[in-house]
Amino acid sequence: MITRTDAEQLDQRDPLANYRQQFALPEQTIYLDGNSLGALPKRVKQRVSETVNQQWGNDLIGSWNTHQWVNLPQIVGEKIAPVIGAAKKQVICCDSISVNLFKLLSVAIQLNGSERRPYILSSHDNFPTDLYIAQGLQQQIGSTTCRFKDVAEEQLYDAINDEVAVVMVTEVNFRSGKRLDIKALTEKAHQHGALIIVDLAHSAGVMPIELDTWNVDFAVGCTYKYLNAGPGAPAFIYVNKRWHNKAQQPIAGWFGHKSPFDFDPTYAPDSGIKQYLAGTPAIISMAAVDSALDLFADLDLQHVRTKSIQLTTLFHQLIEQHELTEQLTLLSPTDASQRGSQLSYQHPQAYGLCQALIKRGVIADFRAPSYIRFGFAPLYNRHTDVYDAVNTLCEVLDNGEHLAIEWQTRQSVT
Ligand SMILES: Cc1ncc(COP(=O)(O)O)c(C=O)c1O
Ligand SMILES: Nc1c(O)cccc1C(=O)C[C@H](N)C(=O)O
User: Which Pfam families does this entry report, sorted A to Z (predicted)?
Assistant: First the structure.
């Protein structure tokens, strides 16, 4: 029988316990939605205020040079690189995942697509934007050299064959939390002459990632989940150095030009990762990413992964202890090593359950048609949060509070 004292003891022994005080978290809230929007680091508040008030307000346009605004995408990229296992000069911070995927898929098809090898292969429960971008590109290029095919996630590995130009996968599934073996998928892709693009949205910052060691070709990821850089903060893009200068990305904007401030009418791409920039960087958000990443400077991602596994394991053990497994069907893998930092359960009134929990200060989210997701952010979630959240969940179910909440047809984020 697990007690609250057990959870308190785990918190006392937690090597990451001090990180929580670096976040501005609301009192009386248990935030289990850091897999959608990470919490606000206190240092980011200060940095954004300084960027707006001193830099923009006082130093105005000179800040492009004096405060390094013009180089922030590269500076931030170099801070992201160690978090995803990349050597220098292969990562840059810009745009959204959707836009960055468009650039990478186009490049991968230029490099490897042909009539004999036309396929972009993905799984049909990949995050929808990834699928939409591939479908959009197929429309753009035409199906002779670019066709999109999606298969069930379990069939992805076996579906890689000599007709595949590029495999596009997300390391951790947004709905189920299932984690794919990127090393094995990369090996299989390369055996068949295919390239691989990996979406790290649900893994960057919450587990060790070894892009260079795994020999991955390209990757994208966001900074607003486990990297805590704020809503709509710019994403990142990784291009393995063997692919630099081999193809031109399609959004040939001036920031990707080799010397943008020459204002030359003819596009000449930068030879390195900077080519993947398009237009003017969103400096206020980019400053937030830069500052948020300082939390990762001395962090051992293996410690983060260990705590993440402890948190998800504890949550599910408590669900079992309260005999809730009949009502809440676990969609995530039962083996913690096979999942990311979230647990998803199917429940017939998942929407009502989620809203009833939010009313009580436990923030989870709902994903259609019938899933409730709990995300665990090891830098600020405690074992006692997990204990208290499961207790609240029991109370909600016992009182039938979830049954009183009407299904909302409007678009709801949580
Ligand atoms: C796996 C995955 N890819 C992409 C996105 C969205 O990408 P963006 O809105 O940055 O284009 C999300 C979530 O928003 C996601 O979970
Ligand atoms: N990116 C988001 C947004 O702009 C608004 C609301 C939610 C999101 C998300 O991140 C959703 C998330 N990728 C998910 O896994 O569902």
Answer: KYNU_C (PF22580)
Question: CA of 184: how far to CAs of 37, 134, 160, 218, in Å?
Answer: 30, 23, 12, 15
Q: Measured in whole angstroms, how far is the alpha carbon of residue 182 from the centre of its chain?
A: 15
Residue closest by Cα to atom 9 of ligand 2: 36
List all residues whose CB is within 6 A of at least one atom of ligand 1.
Answer: 96-98, 127, 129-130, 170, 174, 199, 201-202, 222, 235
The segment(s) of the chain belonging to CATH 3.90.1150.10 are: 4-31+300-404
Check whether 405 is labelled as a binding-site residue: no
Tokens of 326: 């009949």
Report the Cα 111 to chain-centroid distance in Å. 26
CA 21 – ligand 1 centroid, Å:
28
- pLDDT (0 to 100) of residue 149: 95
ipTM tops the 0.95 cut: yes
Percent helix, strand and coil across the chain, each to the nearest 5:
45, 15, 40
pLDDT at 410: 52
Q: Which residue has the tokens 């486990």?
A: 226
pLDDT score, position 409: 55
Cβ of 413 below 6 Å from ligand 2? yes
390: tokens are: 């499961």
Q: What pLDDT does residue 414 have?
A: 72
Q: Which residues contact 112 (CB under 8 A, 6 or more apart)?
A: 165, 166, 193, 194, 195
* Nearest-angstrom CA–CA distance, 273 and 91: 7
- Residues 6+ positions from 157 with CB-CB distance below 8 Å: 184, 185, 188
Distance CA 98, CA 84 (A): 19
DSSP for 394-405? HHHHHHTGGGGS
Distance CA 72, CA 79 (A): 10
Amino acid at residue number 96: S
Q: pLDDT at position 413, please?
A: 75
CATH fold label, 50-296 = Aspartate Aminotransferase; domain 2 (3.40.640)
* Residue with CA nearest ligand 1 atom 6: 97
Cite the active site residues: 127, 199, 224-225, 373
Nearest ligand to the C-alpha atom of residue 236:
1
**Fold (CATH) for 4-31+300-404:** Aspartate Aminotransferase, domain 1 (3.90.1150)
CA–centroid distance, 393 to ligand 1, in Å, is 28
pLDDT value for 316: 98
Q: What residue ranges of the chain have pLDDT lower than 70?
A: 407-411
Ligand nearest to the CA of 414: 2
Q: What is the pLDDT of residue 158?
A: 98
* Claim: this prediction has a pTM higher than 0.90: yes
